[in-house]
Amino acid sequence: MLFRWSLIVMLLGAAGCSRERSSVAVDAALLTQVPGDTIALGAMRVKALRGTAAWKKLLEQPGVNAQLDKLAAETSFDPRKDLWEILWSTNGKDTLVYARGEFAPMGLEPKIQREGVQRMSYKGSMLLGNEESAVWFVNSSTGVFGRTAKIRELIDSRDARKPGPSAALRERIDAFPPNAHFWAVADAAAMPSFESGPRGGMAANFLQNLPKLMQSVKMVSMHLSLQDGMAMETTAYCDSETGARQLHDSLRGMVGLARIALPEKQRTMLLPLLDAVDVRQKQTETTLLARLTVQQFENMQALSLPIASASSPE
Fold this sequence. Notes:
Strand order of the largest sheet: 4-5-6-7-3-2-1-8-9-10-12-11
Radius of gyration: 21 Å
Number of helices: 10
Largest sheet: 12 strands, antiparallel
Helix content: 25-40%
Number of domains: 2
Distance between the termini: 14 Å
Shape: globular
């Protein structure tokens, strides 16, 4: 999958600054590539996890280093040390992934040596991929991945001023704390309608009611930090207090049901997280918070990594 190694996050160097940041740092070189019709975007900030227990545990997972070694051999960069930040955006139809890092040494042209990857020239720019999907290296430190036709649209408009994310999305981004390792924001009112198919199990009622619940949600934001254990906060901004209350009650009911209805193995793994969940409502906003200590998060990782390894293809 595209986000296979997305669990790496950026540590913003604040050396030389006379005061601490009050909001998350967003790479301006990436934001300038974001189309104006974007309705949702998020980021994995790339250097900070390298010094955290979560990053070390990830690298201890069987097969992870082998996959990264393979990626490093096929390209001109090693994501374990050369990747700085990943951003994604969608307009509801096309999804683009943007990356910042040192993709080629000494300013040389980045490379991807993998079966099926072709070099395709378009209006003076070099794309690596095929007619279905490709990477456009804007320069040796900025790359954009997506559907090839969409990448060509970006190249066509490269000299035009790009408005970037809407003011409403940017307002939520600017509100994220500076220690957020992962963040995402979405204009929920503009997102495609959610269609729930036939399902069973404990999530059935919640999923069946989700389209109705989402009708009142106008914006959703999420940020997560692994700096000291795990701290996650997700907020839905609704158009009325009634809508926020209905969402609040549904989320609390879902969490309570999960504590007793999950299969034993999943319950053992997720119980500390479920116990840590707090759902709050403040006027038209409903927020789900979760906080795990370092020990709690490491215990959950220890239980989840073997499950992930067993389910991964060789």
